[in-house]
Amino acid sequence: MIRIALDAMGGDRAPRAIVEGAAWAAQEYDCQIVLVGKERNIKKFLDKTDYPKDRITVKHAQETIKMGEPAAASVRRKKNSSISVGIDLLKTKEVDVFISAGNTGAVVCAAILKLRTLPGIERAGIGIVFPALKQSYIMIDAGANIDATPLHLLQYGVMGSCYCEYILGRHNPSIGLLNIGQEESKGTEIIKEARELYEKTKLNFIGNVEARDVYSGKVDVVVCDGFIGNVVLKVSESLAEASSAFLKKELTRRLLPKIGAVLSLPAYRAIRKKIDSSETGGAPLLGVDGRVIIAHGASNAKAIKNAVRIAIGYVKQKLNQHIIEELKKLNV
Amino acid sequence: MIRIALDAMGGDRAPRAIVEGAAWAAQEYDCQIVLVGKERNIKKFLDKTDYPKDRITVKHAQETIKMGEPAAASVRRKKNSSISVGIDLLKTKEVDVFISAGNTGAVVCAAILKLRTLPGIERAGIGIVFPALKQSYIMIDAGANIDATPLHLLQYGVMGSCYCEYILGRHNPSIGLLNIGQEESKGTEIIKEARELYEKTKLNFIGNVEARDVYSGKVDVVVCDGFIGNVVLKVSESLAEASSAFLKKELTRRLLPKIGAVLSLPAYRAIRKKIDSSETGGAPLLGVDGRVIIAHGASNAKAIKNAVRIAIGYVKQKLNQHIIEELKKLNV
């Protein structure tokens, strides 16, 4: 049975939403969950939920790294944080995967310090599956590192491509570099050099893609540095929220649109489900020697349940082995 | 009367949409429009529209810079492009403002070459007015330059702040640096240094803002480099398009949601109007010694009409004088 460590203290709604999400997941999926964090806090919420008793255990961790804390410093200082203890469980192979909705920087930092990167990989990257018109795709890096060298951008492409092939089941995924124009002449020096590197490989590289194509789904893997990736992600969330707020205001202003809104509800739900980050669940931290899933800081119980689902799919595939093999073929 | 030069050859739908937009604007607003481009092409469409004959003239320009052409090279090579001829009209004060929906890089390049930047300004930046929940705001740079030094980021803030104050009429506008976190410790070295520069000034600087706040409208001026600004803009467009396509599909799938959609139509129209770039019309290229408005490449006639409206408001204020004065107060 797949064993999952879940950071019970990470995220805006922790520990409650995490504990409830774990209970929900343990009912729905065939897995063993270890909740990591302050035992007393966790048990308080766990006792209120209905869950299969043999499937959830608690691993005490005395400290908590808060969302705004500086990543590297807090990981070094708080040796017994739920993040560090969870990653330790992964390192000692007591679990197969670690999930956290906590301080992303701290998770990335602890994972790299304790698990190290895969042989040949210089930098870890967060790969996030985005919904799009044609089909979903993976964007990497969504925020593990704020900058990237051309080689990092190449390695992100390899990792994203492997994820796309082995986890999303897409054959020979296409890779694009996120840029401000499709032309070769456009973009920063780093992007131009990354393009040259890609062209030396046998990867299915299609060149530059523009941010205007991000939701069209014309490419399987979108590669960018973590700053840009984070901006893409957060702007999308911001716009989705603002749009529904605008729409709600407009719809409830007069009677007919209001009735219309009620009748259209199933459609709205379907669309929200498509964009809602709690449906996506979590994003893999690719490139580290161990499986780490980063869930959204605002995760509710459903998001955590879905992160467990993602984690289970992730564990079933030997993704890291594929990444190592693909890296060897690169020839750059 | 305000005199406007309009690049009739620029944009995906040129010259037709530009000519039609000019005719529409000349009917609605008190202005004189010079359509710049291939005379025969322009007249072909102009003759089909109904417009006040004394308000639109044509200035022939033999060459056209296409959307994908490399900016600097094409400006140098095509001395008689509609962009260059239009900017020349501005330089010789035959018009008060120049509008183009053409190759953005070429417009920026020609403007800087021919008009020069304002005294004290190192780089021009595109300022774009974004819709937001609380109130609209201006983002600068939306894509004039792909990178920026800390000083450029500071000067963008001054220009955006002046635009916000004198064109949007907002008192003492707040300025934020677009970053991946609100904490001082976050971001690239360039952003950290820009933050330090801002803190030495008397500008109403509120620190870092995150992309997740981009549509909340919690700040009046959002400062970023042109690569990031372009990504914010294009991702927003991409998501807005994808969302309406998703929604349309869902809404028309079954009968009740379909009826609901019809009843809610006015609300959708209101929301689309809020996000639609053809309502925004155009974005000023700030920091050059002359008034240049950059319209969206996909501009239709309505977008061009609205760009003319923006241009008229822009001409009425002595914005550049204010920018020069504010720069002197900076003390950095």
Mind explaining what this structure looks like?
- The structure is a homodimer of 332-residue chains.
- Chain A has 332 residues and is an alpha/beta fold.
- Chain A has a domain at 1-121 and 287-317: 3-Layer(aba) Sandwich (Isopropylmalate Dehydrogenase).
- Chain A contains twelve helices and eleven strands.
- Chain A has helices at residues 16-28, 39-46, 71-77, 82-91, 104-115, 150-166, 189-199, 226-251, 255-275, 277-280, 301-316, 319-329; strands at 2-7, 31-37, 56-60, 97-100, 125-130, 137-140, 175-179, 205-210, 221-223, 282-286, 292-295.
- In chain A, strand 1, helix 1 and strand 2 (31-37) form a beta-alpha-beta unit.
- The radius of gyration of chain A is 20 Å and the shape is globular.
- The model of chain A has no long low-confidence stretch (mean pLDDT 90).
- At the A-B interface, helix 8 and helix 9 of A face helix 8 and helix 9 of B.
